[in-house]
Amino acid sequence: MGPQSLSRRKREETRTAHDEGVTAPPSAAAPPRGDRPVVDPAPAGSTARRLDPRRLAALGFLLPLLAYLVAFYAYPLWRNIDMSLHDYNLAAFVQGNAQFVALDNFRAVLSDPTFRPALVNTVLFTVGSIAVQFTLGLALAVFFRRTFPLSAPLRAMFLVPWLLPLIVSGSTWSWMLNSDNGVVNSAMQAVGLDGVNWLTSPGTALLSVTIANIWLGVPFNLVILFAGLQNIPDELYEAAELDGASSWQQFRSITFPLLKPVSAITLLLGLIYTLKVVDIIWIMTRGGPGDSSTTFATWSYREAFGTGLPEFSPAAAVGNLLILVALVAGFVYIRLQRRREHA
Amino acid sequence: MNGSWTRGRRTAIALAVATLATGGLAACGGGDDGSSAAGGSGGTYTWWDPYPQHAADSDWAQRVERCGEQAGVKIKRTAYDTTQLTNQALLAGQQGEAPDVILLDNPAVSTLAESGMLATTEQFGLDTSDVDPNLLAAGDLDDESYGIPIGANTLALYYNKAVLDAAGVDPAGITSWATLTDALEKIKAEGNQGITFSAIGTEEGSFQYLPWFWGSGAELTDLDSPEAVASLELWKGWLDDGLAPNSVINNSQNTVWEQFLTGDFGFAENGTWQVNSAADADFETGIIQIPAEAGGAAPAPTGGEFAVVPVQQDTQRYDTTTKIVECMTTAEGFVETANTFAYYIPPTEAGQKELLAEKPDLEVWVDAVREARGRTSDNLGTDYPKISEPLWTAVQQALSGSASPQEALQTAQKAADQATG
Questions:
Q1: Same structural domain for residues B121 and B62?
Q2: C-alpha distance from residue B309 to each of A187, B103, B345 (Å)
Q3: Count of domains in chain A?
Q4: ipTM of this predicted complex?
Q5: Do residues A315 and A167 share a domain?
């Protein structure tokens, strides 16, 4: 009883905040001056601005973060681009005199026989994972919106895949799907079906790693979408119910449209997380058999670390292609977001 | 409105905190630089090896320490995981902070040598004339020699005596592919599993496939020769006929061993490093050499680490480094290494004799090591990894049924041609 009433109160609070935001017209968004005089000081000439101790303090606080961002994000990103534009063979890597080759690495990657299967696999893996993860996550979130006995522990159980180290879940999946001793095949044989060579046949390897990845990704979708559902006011549903809307109509006309912003960010994050998945595929199939479960991410990893001969430049080129895809998706998201705000 | 005094003080505190934070970061960076600098003065020599399982108080660590003492210096030993070691070494080479000695997995020797960060044995003055040439060859690149094996291991077939007895198979009679396949069929007829091996899509897969590949007479420079196709058809046939499990496509060598230890398998392809585990198994085991197609033993690839010496600015260090390496590579040193690790065969005749005097049952392994071939030998050097990747891909494609052995190997040869230029 206690936590329930608490969460209801919280919901009410967010609702009032939400309502305020809605009633305030966009033109009034700029706060009245008197409220925060220091954040936006009167433009009193550049020298005065530089000497403002508050500004210095802000800068002082900002510096560690900036240093961190530069050291751990900007520099590696720049290094990656730099590597993909040079020919870092081994000697060049050690001696630091790599030749500038412009887009040769990208050309080599594009004409590599692995490129086509890797592209197709990346698309199938990413789209398949996200679509199913999102659908399952949404279904579960809607399901758990209603509180019922044991709903909280049940919801917590769904987070378990998130808590396990990837090496554990990856190895477990690969044991379960083992052709000869796997529990999945044993179960299938027990009911009279033929076993499937899940991880060792080119037709099912990608499917198998996608299934494992979906299982891993559902909790993330569940948590974010569930949080999004908490922000949809209850009375909308109550009103809809009074109007005689079925649950499906309620879902289509209330849940889905009001959940759109949260869904968009979930899908974007899901895309980025899925594009970069290496570990689960590497643990389960090494991208094989052949190239049949190789994605761009595992390909890049294989080029750099998976063979006896590290090829950093092509690996960096593949990595940059991935970053590019994620970047494009990010821009698309921002555009959609803007359009919604303007509308 | 607050008084300006409070605001000023708050600013000062904030500034102090921020400066401390950045200063702390800088200090960390500085400390890091200092501690990771390899070598350094004061008679400390750095040593990297791929044996993290041997902790600082292990026999192996003490042995390394003693070799330093004999050379009159202190050795600082760092252990990395095998695959990580090559990358670490490359990074250290890039920073000009390479250690004095690295024990390196033999196919990686030519990789590091190609980067120009290794001294030749001639440069640092080590006599390697006693070492078996087939083992030494793995450390050759462009007619220069870049290290000395501290021991060697290779692959052979372990068998489960009970399973073979039940099927009426005499291991001594297995001398060719035909006799082996025949034995596998008999084992299968008794309800047991025939053979297991590793065909995983990594270097391990190529490593395990090579004895069959070479045993057919095929060469790494010609991946789609009829001999090569025959060897892949042998594996494929075993899978199709149920003589080997389908899971070999994803098996690592460790998994192969785990499968063998279940006691259900007649044979398992595995390395010298399982000798102790085989002795501890719940059933009686034995070893035969991997047969060649037409009979006799097939050459198996050599495994094992080389001692290599990265180039140092201060070439005076080489004298002491050589003393340290020599301590590991005398006949007694080799035998001691063999006993410490239990999976190394000395790479010199004198060492092998001494080891056999102590442990006569290792004879099959000594023979196998003598027949063994370096993967990077025949002047393949850094071309080997470029050939090995298409090769393991071909094995995977053929075994998983996405291409016939012939097609898969033709694709592999094309890819290898493209990669090696």
A1: yes
A2: 55, 9, 22
A3: 2
A4: 0.77
A5: yes
